[in-house]
Amino acid sequence: MPADASTPSPRWCVIGAGPSGLTSLKNLRAAGIAAECLEREAELGGNWAFGTESSRVFASTRLISSKTLTAFTDFPMPREWPAYPDHRQCLEYLHHYADHFGLKQHIVFKATVTAILPVMDAAGRRQGWTVTLADGSCRHYAGIVLASGHNHVPRWPEVPGEFTGTLLHAADYKSPTVPVNLAGKRVLVIGGGNSGCDIAVDVSRQATVTLHSTRRAYHVVPRMVLGRPADLRGERLLKMGAPLWLRRLVSQRAIARTIGLPPTHGLPTPDHRLWETHPVINDCLYAQIDAGSLTPVPDLVRLTGNRVEFADGRCEEIDVIIAATGYQLTFPGIDAGLLNSREGLPRLFLHLLHPAFTDLAVVGMIQPDSGQWGITDLQAQVVTRMILAERFAPRAGSWLARQKQRKPPPPSIRYLDSPRHALEVEHFRYSRELKRLIRGLDRRLRQAADRFPEQTASSGGSTATR
């Protein structure tokens, strides 16, 4: 049931103090929009705060996108850092970002959200939101930015039978000794994504036997190609306007020269073209396979006690299974209908804006094929301008409403139909669309400022483009 109507508050609420929440809070406040952030942990960082309940990184985690294509739009990572910083440096960077823009004083820590309800007036119109916390307190807001991530609820593989050994999800894996000492164990890692490949490599350096089960063969891309981050080389081709077929050809030749293609390592050729799945970025996977420390195996078909059977008929005794099989998309505390969800997926414009309302947005609900933080920065810039338009520039708001009704252009890359790719976006085209919206809103906000300077000034907002 909706909450009772109360005096509307101009303040917005950002839920989650990870990278997406921090850039949302920063952009809102920089535009003069009152906002605070609610974070359930005792520190910021979200997924990158290693050791907290919210974190899904493990001891050896480092970025799979270069620092250049990961950083926020106006806050580069230090030049002296490596091209692919580790999780400790990532958390340090997020703290520096929060300190630089004065964000920490606007974050409420240890604030676990249990309910998010719209406030309705007597006529049934939405007049803001009430957020209830675990301590029973309630806070009232004009709007909500959900930036709590989508790695909360593990997705487990559906395999017939019962396993009597130790079963873990990647969410709980921290190292080859935590939470289970894998030395002397026979370990099976399930999942061909980046986490699955990284964990398989990590485990193979300690376990007696490491098997890596995937449903299909994947293209693997090294972090560095001829001394330069692979994604920066790809970015250059994108900026040059190179067609997809040419980018594939150039990239595959570079991969072949650097780490080799799958058949070089005794693996089958993938059943899809490069970039039709989320890229697997790994420098050590093939080396561990070639050394005999890591054995690729096909999909599981049955569990029987401590034995597992694979699709090729092979059976193995296993002590520990680690399922790196992803996460269910959940937003605790808010009704899925408020997010225009169908079949478990919020149907939002650009995975960001509600198609009808302007008091709710989801920042960070994407999986780009490159770094994410700079893209969520652009998302937050769109949300900020949407709020300013709603407050004092109706023409800008109407223009954005029309954009949300436009038929999306056909994707430049057709990803495989799987839960793993439900939120996949091609970063270059997606970022270009966000920038187009930012420019269009800025132009109309400036026009409103010219027509109604007193109204603009009283809003406390700014239409200046960074």
Provide an overview of this structure.
There is one protein chain. With 466 residues, the protein is an alpha/beta fold. It folds into 2 domains: 12-152 and 328-459, FAD/NAD(P)-binding domain, CATH 3.50.50.60; 156-222 and 259-325, FAD/NAD(P)-binding domain, CATH 3.50.50.60. It contains 11 helices and 27 strands. A 5-stranded parallel sheet has the order 3-2-1-7-25, with helices on one face. The chain has a 5-stranded parallel sheet with strand order 10-21-11-12-17, with helices on one face. Helix 8 (373-392) packs across helix 9. The longest helix is centred in the last third of the chain and has 25 residues, at 427-451. The two termini are 41 Å apart. Mean pLDDT is 93; it is low at 1-6 and 456-466.
Low-confidence stretches: 1-6, 456-466
The number of helical segments is 11
What is the overall shape?
A: globular
User: What's the pLDDT, averaged over the residues?
Assistant: 93
Domain module count: 2
Strand order of the largest sheet: 3-2-1-7-25
What's this model, at a glance?
The protein has 466 residues and is of the alpha/beta class.
SSE arrangement:
Elements: E1 12-15, H1 19-30, E2 35-38, H2 67-70, H3 87-100, E3 107-108, E4 113-120, E5 126-133, E6 138-141, E7 143-146, E8 153-154, E9 161-163, E10 166-169, E11 186-190, H4 194-204, E12 209-213, E13 220-221, E14 224-225, E15 228-229, H5 230-239, H6 244-258, E16 280-281, H7 285-290, E17 295-297, E18 300-305, E19 307-310, E20 315-317, E21 320-323, E22 327-328, E23 341-342, E24 345-346, E25 360-362, E26 367-368, H8 373-392, H9 394-405, E27 424-425, H10 427-451, H11 453-459
Parallel strand pairs: 1-2, 1-7, 2-3, 7-25, 9-18, 10-21, 11-12, 11-21, 12-17, 13-16, 26-27
Antiparallel strand pairs: 4-5, 5-6, 8-22, 14-15, 18-19, 19-20, 23-24
Helix pairs in contact: 1-8, 8-9, 8-10, 9-10, 10-11
